[in-house]
Amino acid sequence: MRKILFALVASIFSFSAMAGGHADWFKEAGAPYKGTVLQGVAENTPPGQFAGEVLAKEFEKLTGIKVQLENTSWDQMYDKAIKDMEANSGIYDFVYIEQDIVYDYLNRDFLVNITKGLADNPDLQAPGVSLDDFTTFIDYFKDGSGDVFGVPMEAFIKVYLYRKDLFERADAKAQFRSQYGYGLTPATSFDQYRDNAEFFTHFCAEQGMECWGTTVQGHTGHPASTYEFLESIAPSFGLYNWGVNMDTYQSCVENGGQLNGGRAKAALNFWTQLLPFAPPEALQSTWSEVGSSFAAGRAAQGWVYGENAAWIATDAEKSAVVGNVGVMLPPTAPGVMTQAASGNGYIGYYDGGAYGIPHSSKNKEATMLWLQYVALNEHQADWAIAGGRITHKDTYADPKVMAVDEQADGYFTLMRDTGYLYAGAPPYPFHGAGRGAIDPFIYSALAGEMTPEEALDGACQALDTVMADLGYQN
Amino acid sequence: MLSKNKTGWLLLSPTILILVLAGLVPFIYVLYVGFFQWNPLAVDPSLQFEGFASNYRRLIFDEVFLESIWRSIKFSVVTLTIELSLGFILALSLLSSFPLKSFFRSVHTLPLVIAPIVVGSIFKLFTVQGLGPLPHILKDYFGYTLNYGLNADQAFWMIVIMDVWHWTPFVTLTLLAGLSALPQDPYESAKIDGANNFQIFTYITIPMMVPVLIVVIFIRLMDSLKIVDEVWMLTGGGPGYATRFTGIHIWKEVFEKRYYGLGSAMSILYLYITIVICWVLYSVMVARGKNED
User: Fold this and answer.
1) Which residue of B has its CA nearest to A109?
2) pLDDT tens across A441-473, in order?
3) Phi, psi dihedral angles at A67 (to 5 degrees)
4) Is residue A439 domain-resident?
5) Alpha helix segments (H runs only) across A121-211
6) Complex ipTM
7) pLDDT in tens, A97-107
8) What is the domain range of residue B168?
9) How many separate domains does chain B show?
10) Chain A residue at shortest CA distance from B248
């Protein structure tokens, strides 16, 4: 909250600075829509809170257009947005489009073509807003012809976080070396990751500390666990795009897929075997709980979503490990880094989302103004500090961002320099149905009701059935 | 007479209209959609008619769906039995006088006013491994590990406990109202005839309470068969399929996987099963009541 307040104060200054720049234009362009109320729904993330609590208020002050942004849970956000767009009810003027759902939305023609909308209404085209200012993350929100359907408002990479204070303890180093025969360092291989996890679980217990060796986003009833496996663990083992053969839309090995192949099974075995070294809440943890567990000092290392990385490293009000957070790329199997660098693979998930306008919106023009306001360069640095997200190229070089970057052990720099090694979700219009088919098998593997091998054999069959059902297989 | 009827129909018409719009029309729509294969994520997102029985035929062989029904029935029977037993004991207790009775009655009723989703949140905060107090207490004092994210039986019973906590007050209050309204003559006669308390309870109280019991059983049975919110919050249907009751299963099929046609057929089939269960139960209870008369 203090960061939001800080950002609010900072943004008042930038708002004043903007007064001489784009403020007049927004004031004039917004005049015909004064009194309009824009309704939006988004996932409750730090960047979403900044948009709702800071940017929306500034925009209203400037234009008289009120923005009511409903930041809610991930499940509720989808539920509300999709029901509204399916029913064409027009409740929401803008919705959050998570990167992995955009293909579904585009396939179902839910969204307004923003490029075309602005081209058709040149009067609504704000000066100072250029789609070229965005990082390549905006490409995920374009259709085949390059038209934009969503304005990115957050983007992160899922990184490896570790506790510097624990890894640098002399007694821990000595004990680790005597036990494992090599030096204690943050993990660059899976064996090392497992050793670190095992070691710190015992070390913390011996020291009377409430901490464990690793996080595991392993909720046995929430898709977060499937996402951790498919988007983080599996790619780092070299299993991409859910193991689906994208020519035939088959995922079982016997049909040309890889979801139950050697890499997938190695990945799931590795991941489930981490559970004894994870905090007890791991099996009820989604991405939020993983962030909270790490921030509470309950894990020595882990895969953590970037939206949490910045506040864990810098926000002393919410995090007990400020100043002690190290950030690195996660470990990968041999060859994966090379494949990722050459564009033939990826090491993890490039996460994020955009605001888009549903066709059912009754205030499309006013919403276009709002989305362009959100996209202004002026806001980006404060937004990055408050929310740990970067969507514009220039934001990395902002002095304020660079200062936070230093506190966060170079998280932003890492994102800038290695973002190309990450990828968004594969372009599957059947994303929800496919993932839903895999979920129960991942849950069962985590709960120990199935072996990883059985779970993946079952998962690939279930996924193949869905893809056949929906008409994707030839 | 005709004029009186017209006025009656006129006065009833808003209610009938609302019932038709809010109840009948959606029901007919769901029935209609249930005859189609329809998934907007499909290559062809339009409704595909593949025969009236295609979805229903598929469901008959759908192990996950059938297991979810069995799980829901098992859950309903277990919770209903516990809630009725506990509710009856509490209602009988509340008939007598004891210190702080009003306070106890108020506190006991509190769970009733809490929304199901909040009940789920409360139990989650209280029982989540690592952070909730209950697993700590159980581990530290009884050496028992509570981890319903891992243990299917624990997950099922945790939801039973949550449901019992939430809904027993409803059973108690309803039975208390019924007990308070019972005529006293049969009790006085029974006492004069030398009946003991157990005989009075078995042969007088229970038979006279049958109409109230039927109402309570039906309301709770239908409610527990369609449980979603609390489970959603506490376990999300996991671990694996352990707490995937039919309501959760339908939600996941319809809103996560977007099988609108199949999901509609599931809803209709489940409604049919619920009606059959209620009808069988009603017939048995009424027949038994008649025999006892």
Assistant:
1) B40
2) 999 999 999 999 999 999 999 999 999 999 998
3) -115, 115
4) no
5) 164-167, 170-180, 190-207
6) 0.86
7) 998 889 889 98
8) 32-292
9) 1
10) A221
